[in-house]
């Protein structure tokens, strides 16, 4: 199969994905009224073993009873290595017609996704479910990252891959203290400058994993989504992490606290100046095409047909955001 023939996954706005523990029903109504594009109700790591079954009941009730508006709703099931998983899938998918996605944690090999696809397909057929369940998977283990390209092609239900920095650090024995945060030791001590000084430049220890996930996703028409940033009292750290992810091509980022939702929505929405610039690029290239040229100058810089593609991606995104919020693109 050629990568160039991959279809884009079901289009959805995915700038922010709010994590809501299934064991805390008091948060459900509030999260439904939040500005998050996607909400996942968690049955996995935010829920203690003794709470797994009550959390599942809470989540089923909330999916059916709360008014979620137009939000994309996901449930993070327990991992395939636990005995909770099969009941999570059967009970939630059988009884929640509103559900859009399942978030599958700790995916390690394509067969993990295949197993879930098989189970969900049977449930959909047996229950004559109208809405087809989509999948998002968490790449958060050494095994998952080492198979990420194959996982990206593992199921037509797959829409998005999320990077889980917390479990990834645990799996690879990376040394961090904050989920998704940096490590002051990770960087480069530069050679001495003319004054004999040596500067230390801190670097981003997530870059290699994230870049690989973005490429695997984009090759296969999936949305790459950056995962959690644990220090919710550090909005600057969150925004900086989100901006790095956005620069690499990520579509959005998790919010593990409501205060992170607006930050993600802002970072992953094109700014008005970017939209304006993209429009000018498209116009300049349309003029160039009339004159039979494939490249021209705009503001003293070269633009060519690749620039049109970048500009069109941005304009399309602005249009989708405008449509979702009922406003014209900024
Ligand atoms: C998310 O699940 C993570 O482990 O960071
Ligand atoms: Mg995890």
What layout of secondary structure does this protein have?
Layout: E1 16-21, H1 28-32, E2 38-42, H2 52-65, E3 72-76, H3 85-95, E4 101-104, H4 110-127, E5 134-139, H5 142-146, H6 148-152, E6 158-163, H7 165-172, E7 187-189, E8 200-202, H8 207-219, E9 223-226, H9 235-248, E10 252-255, H10 259-267, H11 272-290, E11 295-298, E12 301-304, H12 305-325
Parallel strand pairs: 1-2, 1-10, 2-3, 3-4, 4-5, 5-6, 6-9, 9-10
Antiparallel strand pairs: 7-8, 11-12
The chain binds glyoxylic acid (GLV) and magnesium ion (MG).
Magnesium ion binds near residues 45, 140 and 166.
Protein architecture, described:
- Strand 9 (223-226), helix 9 (235-248) and strand 10 form a beta-alpha-beta unit.
- The chain is of the alpha/beta class and 330 residues long.
- The protein is built from 12 helices and 12 strands.
- Helix 11 crosses helix 12.
- The longest helix has 21 residues, at 305-325.
- The protein is 43% helix and 16% strand.
- The protein is globular, with a radius of gyration of 21 Å.
- The strands form 3 sheets. An 8-stranded parallel beta barrel has the order 1-2-3-4-5-6-9-10, surrounded by 4 helices.
- The chain has helices spanning 28-32, 52-65, 85-95, 110-127, 142-146, 148-152, 165-172, 207-219, 235-248, 259-267, 272-290, 305-325; strands spanning 16-21, 38-42, 72-76, 101-104, 134-139, 158-163, 187-189, 200-202, 223-226, 252-255, 295-298, 301-304.
- The chain folds into 2 domains: 16-267, Alpha-Beta Barrel (TIM Barrel), CATH 3.20.20; 272-325.
- The mean pLDDT is 94.
- The structure holds glyoxylic acid and magnesium ion.
